[in-house]
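Entry type: protein chain
Record version: 2
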Amino acid sequence: MGIKLGVLLSGSGTNLQAIIDRIEEGTLDASIELVVSSRPSAFGLKRAEKHGLQTLTLSKEVYANPLVADEVIAAELKMHDVDYVIMAGYMRMVHDPILAAFPNRVVNLHPALLPSFKGAHAIRDAYEYGVKVTGVTVHFADDKYDCGPIIAQQALVVQEGWTVDELEEHIHQIEHELYPNTIQLLAEGRVHVRGDRTVVIDTK
């Protein structure tokens, strides 16, 4: 049956769609048990509903206390028997209620090569800095923003003359491949966090 996923999102849900597509074509050994959105208007909810997935939306009032919100989310994820929590464009930090319930099982996607260009504007920040190489990072989330053990990275050479929008488009193309591929490694039980908080991946 594969691993059971809970997906957290805030926006359009293109990475959710990439995961759904890979599951439906049979190249990702997982199922999505719950999709949680921090915004009722997020288009990702429509994608989830189109595929018959269970959804949960929390209001601004609930999010006024981030710990209470995360307690609600953690309880729902546990009720759905989720193995891994997948952050897919989720624009909020996760806190102890979720991290403690899913140790080394909360996964985040970041559109830069961590530890460079942390934060919500990583693509623009890298572009404005003039980097020649950037990329995408998949890592386990912890209690610090855009930190945590790195599982996978893929580099992207920035071509001369690209606009920031063109860079963003190429970053998203990598995300839509790298994230499902990394989740498949989790499904195969090949990802291990060592005592020094680095990740080792078993080769086949």
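Comment: The first strand starts at residue 3 and ends at 9.
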